[in-house]
Design goal:
This protein is mostly helical. A two-stranded antiparallel ribbon has the order 1-2. A two-stranded antiparallel sheet has the order 3-4. About 4% of the residues have low confidence. One of its GO terms (molecular function) is RNA polymerase II general transcription initiation factor activity.
């Protein structure tokens, strides 16, 4: 044991330490006790595994239980008859252990990972727009399998998907928590698929009415105080922003009577669709303070400011962006909106009474101390 300790000291420090024989004997006794305990515990593991032969894996498990680092240069696989995977090189008085690197083919790993995970995907989410631009390739619709839902969940989901929007559905979306949590992934996926179809055929009045219906339901859903909804904001936010900034093919009038009490679901008016999207975006921004990074809000504001200052931005989008900032309060308007008001197209501003009116309210709001 004395020679072993001296060898270990030379291996670690490169030279023998000036320790007395009494010190080495003290270390030797304690090291002997530790080794005996390790072997006893390793034999216990071997006996529990109904083996009479002690393996390197048994010792490795004992070391792991004691929070001892692994033994480098030692092959601890159960195939004890094989040669060690480590090789040794002598450098002076020290022994260096090394192992040859194996070549990794990333294409094979990617194909294996893709094939193993493909069958386990239940929900496929696609961004409807990247940096505010719609992509032309067809959108893949991922329909969920009703067989994974219980009968009660299927009935409740069918009730929420009813085309006859009434007060009962409104209360369920904005107040229910327990039952709604069980079908929330399928409900949001249903919203996304139908909104995709409505945006693709937005030139038809019927599809714009359906889009207003889905946006209204999402607004009531975002009013729900259930915290589990916050975990789906990363799916809802690109849907809402796409409806907000979408370039509709139909004619966009330069002005609109914002005091019109007629339901947007009946009219399908573009101004009302953008206002509904702005209301949902406001709810997302207020909920995101509890979950998403602060940069999430800044990125949304930056994207809206960019659209606000473009000369090609329609009047309905200008009004909806100003509406969003007005609802968020004077602090947000002072920080993000005021420096860019002069860059808005003045022709569209002065040709719309609605835009002039909301700019006056923002001016009064920002002057409040």
């Amino acid at each position: 044991m004395f020679e072993l300790l001296r060898y270990v000291c030379e291996l670690i420090f490169g030279s023998s330490l000036a320790l007395s024989r009494e010190s080495f004997e003290y270390l030797s006794v304690h090291l002997h006790n530790i080794i005996v305990q390790l072997i006893q515990q390793a034999f216990t593991i071997a006996l529990r595994a109904k083996r009479t032969q002690l393996l390197g894996d048994d010792l490795q498990i004992v070391l792991k239980c004691r929070n001892i680092p692994p033994l480098f240069g030692y092959c601890h696989s159960s195939t004890t008859n094989r040669a060690s995977s480590f090789k040794s090189v002598y450098q002076g008085a020290r022994t260096l252990f090394y192992q040859n690197d194996t070549i990794i083919n990333f294409s094979e790993i990617q194909s294996i990972t893709t094939n193993t995970l493909r069958d386990k995907i239940l929900l496929d989410v696609e961004w409807l727009a990247i940096e505010g631009e719609q992509k032309l390739p067809p959108i893949k619709l991922s329909y969920f399998n009703n067989s994974i839902l219980k009968v009660e969940q299927q009935l409740y989901l069918s009730f929420l998907q009813s085309k006859n929007f009434n007060e009962e559905i409104q209360n369920a979306l904005s107040n229910d928590q327990i039952a709604l949590n069980t079908i929330l992934p399928q409900l949001i996926d249903w919203y996304r698929n139908n909104i995709c179809e409505c945006l693709i055929h937005s030139c038809r009045l019927e599809k714009r009415r359906h889009l207003a219906y889905y946006l209204t339901m999402i607004n009531y859903l975002l009013q729900n105080s259930a915290t589990v909804i916050d975990h789906y904001l990363y799916i809802i936010s690109p849907i809402i922003l796409t409806c907000f900034l979408y370039e509709y093919e139909v004619d966009d009038p330069s002005d609109f009577n914002v005091n019109n009490d007629e339901s947007v679901i009946n009219t399908g008016h573009i101004w009302s669709l953008r206002i509904l999207s702005a209301q949902a975006c406001i709810k997302i921004l207020r909920r995101s303070n509890f979950l998403i990074y602060d940069t999430f809000t800044v990125r949304i504001f930056s994207r809206l400011i960019y659209s606000l200052t473009l000369s090609s931005t329609p009047s309905s989008l200008i009004y909806a962006i100003l509406y969003l900032f007005e609802r968020l309060g004077c602090r947000v308007c002072r920080t993000f909106l005021l420096p860019y008001l002069v860059d808005i197209d003045s022709v569209k501003v002065f040709s719309s009474k609605a835009i002039l009116s909301i700019l006056e309210r923002i001016a009064l709001l920002t002057t409040i101390k």
